[in-house]
Amino acid sequence: MRTVMVGGLGLGALLVSFAIVFLLWAPATATSVPTPASASKPAIAPATAAAQAGHQAAQAASPASALADSTASISPASPPPRLPVSVAAAPSCRGNPEALGISRTVEIDTTDGPGFGFEHFKQHDFLQPGEVVLTFDDGPWPHNTPAVLAALAANCTKAVFFPIGEHAMWAPEILRQVAAAGHTIGSHTWSHADLLKKTPQEAKDEIEKGISAVHGALGAPAAPFFRFPALRHPPEMVTYLGERNIAIFSTDMDSLDFKIRKPDQVIASVLAKLKKNGKGIVLMHDFQRATAEAAPELFRQLKANGYKVVFLKAKTPLKTIASYDEMIFKDVKLPTLSARPTSNVVRTIAE
Ligand SMILES: [Zn+2]
User: Taking the model in full, what pTM does it have?
Assistant: First the structure.
C-alpha cells in the first residue's frame, strides 16, 4: 500500500514537474532562437545577452580611457561597463526661442549610393548658406551618447548617427534610445577597421556585419547611410555601396574632436570651420567625452550664430544580408531562464 501511495505521489509530482518544465521551456525556447527574419523580437534578447556578456568581460575603467583617441584606431579590447541609462526627457521647445530646432528635414534617395560631404564628394550641394547637418560617429557608448541625446532633445533638434557594430551589440539599449528620439541611424562598419588595409572581401564583411549589428541591436532596420572609418574610402567599396544603394557620408568639416580633450576647444573647432565654410555636414563623435560635454554649449552657440539644422532621413530602410545577421547572432550566446551562479548549479559531490 505504502509503495502504491508513494508511486501515486511520485507520478503526480512527475506530472507537475513536466508541467513546470514545459511552462519554463516554452517561453525560453520562443526567445532563444534568433532568426534574422523575425529580428524585431529576438534581436532584443541576444543583444541584451551580448551586453551582459560584455559587462562580465568588461574591466575597462571608463570609456574615455578605454579607447584610443584616433578614429583610425578605435578597436577597444573590451566592451564598456554597463552604466544605468536614463532616458533624456524631451522638453517642449514651444515658446523656447533659444532652442536650435530643425529648420528643414531632407529625404535622401540612396539609389546607386550617392556620396555626400565635400571632403570627398562633389556631386550634391544641397545645403543653403548657414545650414548644418549634425552627425555623430562611433557610438553608442555609455554616458557620452546619452549626454549628446540629452543636449539634442533640449534643443529639439536631430542628428544622424553612425554607430560601430561592436558598440551597438555592447550597448543596444543606448542605440535604441537614439532611435526612440527619432534620430537617423546609419552604420560605420563592425569594428572601425581601416578598410584600405583590408581585402575587398574583408572590407565587405566589415560593412555588412556593421549593418547587421545595428539592425540586430535596434530590432529595426538602419538607414542606408554609411560613413567609412577615418574617412578612408577604398574605390571597390564605394562601388559596392553603390550596388547596395547605400549613401556614403564623408564630411564638409571634420571637427577633429577625437583629438581634442577640452569641450571649449571642440566648440571653437566646429565654429571656426563652419565660419570658414559657411554651411556643411559636421562630423563629431558621440563616443567622445569632450564632445558630449561640449554639446549643450555648442548647440547654444550654433543658434546664437544663426546656423540652421537640416535633418536627413532616408527614403527607404536598409535590408540586411541574412548570412551576416546569422554571423552576428552566432557570436551571441543563447540566453537561458536560469540566472543562478555556477556554484549553485554545479556541485562536486564526490572526489
Ligand atoms: Zn569613426
Answer: 0.72
